[in-house]
Automatic annotation (TrEMBL):
This protein's record includes keyword Transport: no
Span of the signal peptide: none
Name the UniProt record assigns to this protein: Pbg10 protein
InterPro entries: GH, GH_1_N_CS, Glyco_hydro_1, Glyco_hydro_1_AS
Keywords, sorted A to Z: Glycosidase, Hydrolase
Active site feature: 386
A biological process term (GO) from this entry: carbohydrate catabolic process
Matching PANTHER family: 6-PHOSPHO-BETA-GLUCOSIDASE ASCB-RELATED, GLYCOSYL HYDROLASE
Alphabetical list of Pfam families matching this protein: Glyco_hydro_1
Organism expressing this protein natively: Lactiplantibacillus fabifermentans DSM 21115
GO molecular function, one term: beta-glucosidase activity
Cellular component terms (Gene Ontology): cytosol
């Protein structure tokens, strides 16, 4: 008789927590020897071009923004001043019962220009202190090594990841991190949303962002190849230096549906999915999948690989798959379909789904589908390292923030996660995005808020930076205390 038990809920030791990124929280952009980063010029470039989509920033505007390095009011330079508030913030995370806190290290704090041989001790010391503060409360740091930024100097000298030379700069940085934080950081991730590197500047750090310029597809996939190699080397280093640590990849996942049951739409959605899962195919399975050969041939891409690269990709397979999940998309074979509106929407409108204030199509069931698909395809532990609702919060007359909409969003997603666990998916943890309000990656605004903790600061940088608990704070505390039973 075949008899196996179905899990009843989240496993013991499930990593509940929240996720952030250095350039969206830290501030202190020029303090203690830190160098300027690419993230700190993106917003300026967007402002100058007056556009919403960061992926179409032109080369010229990025260059102008880079030339002006004096302004410290830009959102990704001021963050929420976590640099000086980390003790208070981590204490609040601990009060919610966090088991894990995902944060990124600002590469330019460790190597201000990226190409030095000796790291900046003050930068390393800052993260020593942050990790110590986490451990004081039994919180595991989950560290992204590169979250949408790099030392700006590497963009100016190497054109970011477009150059193979950046691999050596990166691996010098990662070696320093693994040695310094051996036994201190148990969970690492190499690149945040690595698929963003085929979208433009934020991912590649290369001045290639105008898609109308010929050769962009070539440049982006070549830059991405360099990131794959750098990631594989980092995985190997991590395993050699600290065999007890786990290191994963990180993908921006949008579950993709066919617009109709018309096989042409289904095939279009399948291709869309392949182009999205290509990244995890390389990083989890350790090789380029065959379907990309055809894509490269049809899109004029000829990858420059060195002998040994393919072996490295095999040796540098990740231990787990981390991913962000905010929404799903719809793909049709032709353009004759109503497009979803809002920022960062790539596909068609799904009439069955509601949207966030920014038009992101909210789809909790899609998360369950994604989890099942990932588990079927990869058989490595999964980690939801971002999920959340960006919303315009209002301070009520009673001085509080009653964010029931956020609770609803998170509750529905956690419910579907639980279903996936019962389906048999191996899920390690859940770090929702932005446990404390922070600067938005895509809009660089403060008013797109995700947090359980409100931060008194407006889009222009006015405010006391005072932290206060929203209604969702007590709710998440209860969720964690009951290991996801009391939703
Ligand atoms: C992901 C990024 C994060 C983040 C989040 C929410 O793409 O990894 O850095 O900010 O999305 O996006 P946004 O800030 O644009 O609302």
């Amino acid at each position: 008789m075949y008899s196996k038990t179905i899990p009843t809920g989240f496993p013991k030791g499930f990593l509940w927590g929240g996720a952030t990124a250095a350039n969206q929280i830290e501030g202190a952009w020029n303090i203690d020897g830190k160098g300027l980063t690419t993230a700190e010029v993106v917003q300026k470039a967007q402002d100058r071009q007056n556009i919403e989509n960061m992926n179409v920033i032109s080369k010229e505007t990025v260059a102008t923004a880079i030339a002006d390095t004096t302004d410290d009011l830009y959102p990704k330079r001021r963050g929420i001043d976590f640099y000086h508030h980390y003790k208070e913030d981590i204490k609040l995370f601990a009060e919610m019962g966090f088991k894990a806190f995902r944060l990124s290290i600002a590469w330019a704090r460790i190597f201000p220009k990226g190409d030095e041989t000796t790291p900046n001790e003050a930068g390393l010391k800052f993260y020593d202190d942050v990790f110590a503060e986490c451990h004081k409360y039994g919180i595991e740091p989950v560290v992204t090594i590169s979250h949408y930024e790099m030392p700006l100097n590497l963009t100016l000298t190497n054109n970011g990841w477009a150059s193979r030379a950046t691999i050596a700069d990166f691996t010098r940085y990662t070696e320093v991190l693994f040695k310094r934080y051996k036994g201190i950081v148990k969970y690492w991730m190499t690149f945040n949303e690595i698929n963003a590197s085929t979208w433009g500047f934020m991912g590649t750090g290369a001045l290639d962002s105008d898609l109308d310029v010929p050769g962009q597809t070539q440049l982006r996939y070549q830059a991405l190849h360099h990131e794959f190699v750098a990631s594989a080397i980092a995985v190997k280093q991590c395993h050699e230096i600290d065999p007890a640590a786990k290191i994963g990849c990180m993908l921006a996942r949008m579950q993709t549906y066919a617009n109709t049951p018309n096989p042409a739409d289904v095939r279009a959605a399948q291709l869309q999915d392949q182009l999205n899962l290509f990244f995890t195919d390389v990083q989890v399975r350790g090789e380029y999948p065959e379907y990309m050969n055809r894509f490269f041939a049809e899109n004029g891409v000829t990858l420059q690989m060195e002998s040994g690269d393919e072996a490295l990709l095999q040796e540098g397979k990740v231990d787990y798959l981390g991913f962000s999940y905010y929404m799903s998309t719809v793909t049709a074979a032709d353009d004759n379909v109503e497009k979803a509106s809002g920022n960062l929407n790539f596909g068609g409108k799904n009439p069955y789904l509601e949207t966030s204030d920014w038009g992101w199509q909210i789809d909790p069931t899609g998360l369950r589908i994604t989890l099942n698909e990932f588990w079927d395809r990869y058989r490595v532990p999964l980690f939801i390292v971002e999920n959340g609702l960006g919303a315009l919060d209002e301070v009520s007359a009673d001085g509080k923030i009653h964010d029931d909409y956020r609770i609803d969003y998170l509750r529905q997603h956690i419910q579907q996660m639980k279903e996936a666990v019962k389906d048999g998916v191996d899920l390690m943890g859940y770090t929702m995005w932005g446990p404390i309000d922070l600067i938005s990656a895509s809009t660089s605004e403060m008013s797109k808020r995700y947090g359980f903790i409100y931060v008194d600061q407006d889009d222009e940088g006015n405010g006391t930076l005072k932290r206060s608990r929203k209604d969702s704070f007590a709710w998440y505390q209860k969720v964690i205390a009951s290991n996801g039973e009391d939703l």
